Amino acid sequence: MGRSRLRNRFRVDDPLDESPDHALVGIVSIPDHVASPWRIIAKRLWFAFLVIAIAVIVVYLDRDGYQDGNGEPGMSLIDCIYYTTVSLSTVGYGDITPVTESARLVNIVILTPLRLIFLIILVGTTLAVLTEQSRQALKIQRWRTTLRNHTVVVGYGTKGRSAVAALLADEISASEIVVVDNDPQALKAAAARGLVTVSGSATKSDVLKLAGVTRARAVVVSLSSDDSSVLVTLSARELAPNAKIVATVRESENTHLLKQSGADSVVVSAETAGRLLGLATVTPTVVGMMEDLLTPDEGFSIAERRVEDNEVGGSPRHLKEMVLGVVRKGTLIKVNEPDADALESGDRLLYIRMVGND
């Protein structure tokens, strides 16, 4: 399947990407410390029922001061509940009325303030929900306008979480990472780390557009299915010709498909894990060192930096760092290759450093 065959897919309208901001509330989630609207509603309903209960108790204690529509004095508990609910909701059918001075005084001093509190709770809940929806829409609008040079992580499973952890350890801000997934639990876990999330299948171009792939600096494809990874990589490369795309596949025979689809780098997860398992049986200390290198928070770490002016022309073997390779014009040159003997301006060094050290 060639890239040219997919171009027609991107000429059709993408309704999700073109949707107004308020329609994206619930699809795009921007981390916030504000309580959930449903929790706010539940809390306000609890207060509303508490107000009703207090009013029922007050009316019941003075139940002999009321009469029903037939003129009979006194009320049962059901009558008290009925009278309280229709009074606090301002319906007021008039079939039960206070006839004694004490009952009328209770209505003036107690029930009227409770009625106002009840209305404030209900109206306040409606306004709070509407305000929260509007606030989220404004945040999404601002996010879509300012989103630039970020990293899109497609799939927030085990590999996706590890990739995000490495990005955060590399001092990339959480606000510069957007996670795309269709698993609610994965999105919830990503949001808990302060990441912006987009709910949907990344195999759809409009979902990728909504995540800002067209303006992204890099795309990480960390799906568990190789065919989905190929399709997402094709879509991402078509939408973002200049972005760096890193993808993972389970089987090594699919590596060339990812490369042909536009991936800059491909990591074979099953083969890599198999090699580590094999090494662990023979030289477990080597595996321990490799895990240390891949763990960004402790021990050793693989880092990259540009060549300083005073290092140009020199050999990377003479530097204080343990240099593994030289990146020159986007191509990695291993340190033992002849082309790496003399550093050039614009080169970047891959080296091993202690975490926490410059």
Automatic annotation (TrEMBL):
GO terms for cellular component: plasma membrane. It is found in: Cell membrane. Gene3D superfamilies: 1.10.287.70, NAD(P)-binding Rossmann-like Domain. It comes from the Bacteria. Residues 148-268 form the RCK N-terminal domain. Keywords: Ion channel, Ion transport, Membrane, Transmembrane, Transmembrane helix, Transport. One of its GO terms (biological process) is monoatomic ion transmembrane transport. The chain crosses the membrane at residues 45-61, 108-130. It is a multi-pass membrane protein. This is Potassium channel protein 1.
